[in-house]
Amino acid sequence: MKGAFSFLTASALTCLASSSTIARAELDALVKRASPQAPNGYAPAPVDCPETRPSIRPAAGLSNSETEWLEKRRANTIEPMRDLLTRININGFDAGKYIDDNRDNVTALPNIGLAFSGGGYRAMTNGAGALAAFDNRTPNATSAGHIGGLLQASTYIAGLSGGGWLVGSIYSNNFTTVQAMIDQPGETGVWQLGNSILVGPEKGGIQVLDTVQYYNNLYDTVNSKVEAGFNTSLTDYWGRALSFQLINATDGGPAYTFSSIQDDEDFRNANAPMPILVADERAPGETLISLSTTVLEFNPWEMGSFDPTLFGFAPLRYLGSNFTSGELPEDDRCVRGMDNAGFVMGTSSSLFNQIILNLDTVEGIPDFLRNTLKGFLSGIGQDNNDIADYTPNPFYHYNNETNPSAQTKRLTLVDGGEDLQNIPLHPLIQPVRAVDVIFAVDSSADTIENALNWPNGTALIATYERSLNETMQNGTAFPAIPDHNTFVNLGLNNRPTFFGCDANNMTGPAPLIVYLPNAPYIYHSNTSTFQMEYNNTERNVIIQNGYNAATQGNATLDTDWPSCVGCAMLSRSFDRTGQQVPDVCRQCFDRYCWNGTLASDTPAPYWPELKLSAVNVSGKSGAAIFGPNMVLSASVVGFLLFW
Ligand SMILES: *[C@@H]1O[C@H](CO)[C@@H](O)[C@H](O)[C@H]1NC(C)=O
Ligand SMILES: *[C@@H]1O[C@H](CO)[C@@H](O)[C@H](O)[C@H]1NC(C)=O
Ligand SMILES: *[C@@H]1O[C@H](CO)[C@@H](O)[C@H](O)[C@H]1NC(C)=O
Ligand SMILES: *[C@@H]1O[C@H](CO)[C@@H](O)[C@H](O)[C@H]1NC(C)=O
Ligand SMILES: *[C@@H]1O[C@H](CO)[C@@H](O)[C@H](O)[C@H]1NC(C)=O
Ligand SMILES: *[C@@H]1O[C@H](CO)[C@@H](O)[C@H](O)[C@H]1NC(C)=O
Ligand SMILES: *[C@@H]1O[C@H](CO)[C@@H](O)[C@H](O)[C@H]1NC(C)=O
Ligand SMILES: *[C@@H]1O[C@H](CO)[C@@H](O)[C@H](O)[C@H]1NC(C)=O
Ligand SMILES: *[C@@H]1O[C@H](CO)[C@@H](O)[C@H](O)[C@H]1NC(C)=O
Ligand SMILES: *[C@@H]1O[C@H](CO)[C@@H](O)[C@H](O)[C@H]1NC(C)=O
Ligand SMILES: *[C@@H]1O[C@H](CO)[C@@H](O)[C@H](O)[C@H]1NC(C)=O
Ligand SMILES: *[C@@H]1O[C@H](CO)[C@@H](O)[C@H](O)[C@H]1NC(C)=O
């Protein structure tokens, strides 16, 4: 059998990538958000280069593609924004008139970003509840007390790890709704989390594959990439397995690429926000990921980083091509198909790829496959079993002085939360994107004593600390964030909290953060990050809990909450236009803005109580697959405690 990293020449494959396959795929792309554009299924393959040869660009600004798209997107957010703001009726403020007075100059109006943290299926489902609340297509989301339309009014939507499954899944399925993902006419709902990813999709669910067929499929697709001459890692298996749960296509759509989103007619017309997934770089020799680690983003056009280290972007569609010093040598062909949608989602969540090693608990797995997967461990060492391998490094010999991987043809990425920045704020605080407000849904598991798995501000603290590092922050500013103890003592992790309300109290332009922590509204949604099975009852109740967190129980916990959401949306815009802040908004800011108070003593045990009536999920208990057999590297064991 071929070794994990066996390297073949790709020349044998050139014939597979006929231009007609691509033309057909591009036609398909016109009807689906993400589509099977890869020339040869899961395996990347050489193709003819476009007339303008792809190259690496410096991160000094936005890509032309994003800039052009933004013009349409900002304009398209105006109507949904006007609709939402007039619906929530900010007392004493004519929101309709304000929008109309400024609609000729859209930069005066709010520029909104959404961010969904990591935290496994807990983060995916809790985040889905908030996303459903933001989405005007969700039944009742535009009723009084709800906030539907925020999604349609947003410019960006970022996801990381479990939050990346949410965002990636929605965009890989034609920007569908959360509701559609869980609706199951004839059991065809897409998010079937009742069967562990180790066992494969349920019979009668979206796929009818038994476990052996499922593993053979994973093996065959990943092996096709090996045979095409590309390095693979556990993340390839993990991403393929995830695709079965997240992408509604036969065999999890092995040819679906993340870059195909750029060709979708609706996305091109800017009818949906721009999706961004986040990962960290693991530089050569680096084992522990620190706050100074390079943070990378994947968006529909590009992959790269604004950090001063890498400071460059590669065209996502042509990942896998042999870029050197930012260019593709004249005699080299282009490669497409490396940015498989599942692989990109798997990269952002690579901390979980070791789940796939927990095979001993599953019956019927062929021995050769068991051995292949375990072979990865001996091949790369346990400290590295969370990597996603992006060889050939598109940033080879690029920015030699600062880029930590400039001298190696290998580029390895890991889970975007490994630097503790578990909310994907990094792409949204870049000054060139000029985001005014970020709705940050935090489903992190930070608390380690007493009640486990609730957030305590760790992710925000990390991003704040990074913004204070002169070397790394590179022009990004971030609101002041208090310590963990203050979060717990003041309950900032138990209810919505705004940070950075005063734009003048910052080192530079920075967005207002609307922090929406996971807390118990109708269910104790602090399930383990590594719980790999959720029956539909529990899945749905966590989604509903997230909905209630985002809407404050549809305004039953605070009748002014929808107005306060509107005030947060408008705050920076008010500053720009010199608009007097309405009284209702002042009251909102008094209530929800962190005012600088510290309470840093060790807090009492955090045992949050339900804020609304409990919902019953009784029945037989769903087992967590994360068992004692799992093989973990030392660096990862630490993360299990507070993910
Ligand atoms: C994708 O969504 C759009 C609008 O929501 C819809 O018009 C179109 O039919 C959908 N395409 C597919 C292939 O489902
Ligand atoms: C647009 O609005 C911005 C922010 O309020 C302002 O700085 C700029 O001058 C305005 N441009 C025009 C053409 O009015
Ligand atoms: C929508 O609201 C109506 C009226 O309040 C209610 O009967 C219905 O159950 C709600 N639907 C959902 C999906 O919550
Ligand atoms: C999943 O695919 C099936 C079959 O094509 C389709 O009927 C269903 O609407 C899709 N679900 C979603 C959420 O897109
Ligand atoms: C700031 O970042 C630099 C460069 O990555 C790093 O070496 C340094 O340790 C960081 N400083 C602090 C205080 O974290
Ligand atoms: C960010 O980093 C790049 C590359 O090191 C540098 O050229 C640029 O001036 C930096 N920007 C700011 C605002 O510091
Ligand atoms: C890229 O370089 C590798 C190693 O030199 C080579 O095997 C491969 O064929 C090249 N890819 C293309 C598309 O030329
Ligand atoms: C980067 O480093 C490589 C290897 O040392 C060298 O060949 C290349 O010319 C350098 N690139 C630049 C732009 O200096
Ligand atoms: C907050 O979370 C961090 C990270 O898990 C943990 O070390 C710390 O003890 C927690 N503090 C409180 C007060 O919950
Ligand atoms: C809020 O509305 C959602 C969606 O309609 C519903 O599921 C939820 O139960 C409502 N919450 C409360 C507290 O009524
Ligand atoms: C204002 O800025 C100072 C200095 O960064 C900080 O200590 C303080 O907490 C900030 N106040 C608020 C309310 O954010
Ligand atoms: C679903 O899972 C929950 C949590 O493990 C459990 O309490 C409940 O009994 C299960 N419900 C069914 C119908 O299996």
From TrEMBL:
Biological-process GO terms, alphabetical:
glycerophospholipid catabolic process
Answer whether the UniProt record assigns the keyword Magnesium to this protein.
no
- Give an example GO cellular component term for this record: endoplasmic reticulum
Q: Where is the secretion signal located?
A: 1-25
Q: Which GO terms describe its molecular function?
A: phosphatidylcholine lysophospholipase activity; phospholipase A2 activity
PROSITE patterns in the record: PLA2C
| EC class name | hydrolase
Q: Which reaction does it catalyse?
A: a 1-acyl-sn-glycero-3-phosphocholine + H2O = sn-glycerol 3-phosphocholine + a fatty acid + H(+)
Q: Is Transferase among this UniProt entry's keywords?
A: no
Q: Which Gene3D superfamilies does the UniProt entry name for this protein? A: Cytosolic phospholipase A2 catalytic domain
UniProt cross-references to Pfam families, sorted A to Z? PLA2_B
Every copy of the PLA2c domain together lies at: 48-599
The source's domain of life comes to: Eukaryota
Report the EC number(s), separated by commas if there are several. 3.1.1.5
**Keywords in alphabetical order:** Glycoprotein, Hydrolase, Lipid degradation, Lipid metabolism, Signal
Region (Disordered) residue spans:
39-64
Where is coiled-coil annotated? none
Q: Which family does it belong to?
A: Belongs to the lysophospholipase family.
Protein name, UniProt field: Lysophospholipase
